[in-house]
Specification:
There is one protein chain. The protein is mainly β. The chain has a single domain (2-355), classed as 7 Propeller (Methylamine Dehydrogenase, Chain H), CATH 2.130.10.10. It is 1% helix and 43% strand. The chain is built from 1 helix and 28 strands. Strands 3-2-1-28 form a 4-stranded antiparallel β-sheet, with no helix packed on it. A 4-stranded antiparallel β-sheet has the order 4-5-6-7, with no helix packed on it. The protein has a 4-stranded antiparallel β-sheet with strand order 8-9-10-11. A hairpin with a 2-residue loop joins strand 9 (101-106) and strand 10 (109-113). The longest helix is centred in the middle third of the chain and has 4 residues, at 124-127. The radius of gyration is 19 Å and the shape is globular.
Length: 356
């Protein structure tokens, strides 16, 4: 049995089941409220959810039972002396050290917790970075949407911000350096493409078996890093991918050469090309890409899959893949993408999908 947490525009849905026999809604929380993201910490079993209030902005809630009572976490706030407000929390990610959890939000902020997500503080190293006045938002805002810890080393951390780029820290977030070498922001005029802080990264995932390897979905391009994010190589250009634009990307934890993307028509449309839903897979580190379509709608299906709405469970031949669309469908694969089934429909617009 697999548990899939689906954050939507109208609440959190907890699905339970398997792709072969179907899924049921085990619990629903925060009805009528926008749940940007939800996850279950594998170390403690605690559930954490990012909920956006029209009045209070982004907040984090915690529980041990998603069908029971939720407790609002403390400390999710920006400095009172500033004039910026917290629009939302985009993502929540467990750290490496016991109790460490990170959360990223808009405007380009990182929060950290050392008690499993019950109390939080703003990471001042990134908030006070001297280049912040040069940062500009993407279409979704100035969102810190990607947090990538380094296995077994709590000092090393990567984050990504739209439309700023990739940032690395080697001292648990005390100091940060940008790391966009090799990424080409073709949406900028040619004379401005060497800008340091105009990189609209959409998502980054690390390989579980080879942590120095990362895959990135960019605003225009799919990239790979073989040196822990120091430099990036375009692995989408010249391949069969129908578009270099997309939001999510996931990797097989057991195979550093395997990654999956869901391309969209570029920024002017942001739907699946040709009305056909295809998950594209590489098994050779991006040298080639192949579509996986069995069980997915191939006609008049103009879906939009957001950056946090694609996740995995397991690995290798038993890799499970799950993604959700803003039209309310959730699809799953129990055989590493070879075949797919719809596991939920008629949900509110899906913001995020995370396996527990």
């Amino acid at each position: 049995m697999t548990e899939v947490l689906v954050g939507t525009k109208k609440g959190l849905f907890v699905l339970e089941g398997d792709v072969g026999s179907g899924f049921d809604v085990k619990a629903r929380a925060f009805p009528g409220q926008a749940v940007e993201y939800a996850m279950r910490d594998p170390r403690s079993g605690r559930y954490l959810a990012s909920v956006t209030s029209w009045f209070y902005g982004g907040r984090i809630w915690a529980t041990d039972d998603p069908a029971g009572e939720w407790q609002e976490a403390e400390g999710i706030a920006l400095p009172e002396e500033g004039d910026q407000s917290l629009a939302r929390i985009w993502v929540i990610e467990p750290g490496v050290a016991d109790g460490d959890v990170y959360a990223g939000g808009d405007p380009g902020c990182l929060f950290e917790s050392h008690d499993g997500g019950l109390t939080w503080s703003l990471n001042r190293g990134l908030w006070d970075h001297p280049t912040r006045p040069e940062w500009n938002p993407g279409a979704g805002g100035l969102c810190l949407h990607t947090i990538v810890p380094w296995p077994d080393d709590p000092d090393r951390l990567m984050v990504a911000i739209s439309a700023v780029g990739v940032w690395l820290s080697d001292d648990r977030g005390a100091t940060w350096r940008y790391s966009n070498a090799g990424i080409v922001p073709e949406y900028l005029p040619e004379e401005a493409q060497d800008a340091e802080f105009q990189h609209c990264v959409h998502n980054v995932r690390r390989s579980g078996s080879r942590p120095e390897r990362l895959f990135m979905q960019f605003h225009g391009g799919v990239y790979r890093s073989d040196d822990a994010g120091a430099t990036w190589i375009d692995v989408g250009d010249g391949t069969d991918l129908p578009s270099d634009f997309g939001f999510p990307i996931v990797v097989d934890p057991a195979d550093a050469d395997s990654a999956f993307v869901i391309p969209h028509i570029g920024a002017e449309d942001r739907t699946t090309p040709g009305g056909a839903v295809r998950v594209w897979e590489t098994r050779d580190a991006g040298a080639s890409w192949s579509p996986r379509t069995e069980g997915l709608p191939q006609q008049n299906a103009y879906l939009t899959v957001l950056r946090e709405a694609f996740d995995t469970a397991g690995e290798g031949s038993g890799l499970e893949l799950y993604f959700g669309a803003t039209s309310g469908e959730v699809f799953g694969s129990g055989d590493a993408g070879a075949s797919w089934a719809q596991i939920a429909d008629h949900l509110p617009p899906v913001h995020s999908v995370r396996t527990a």
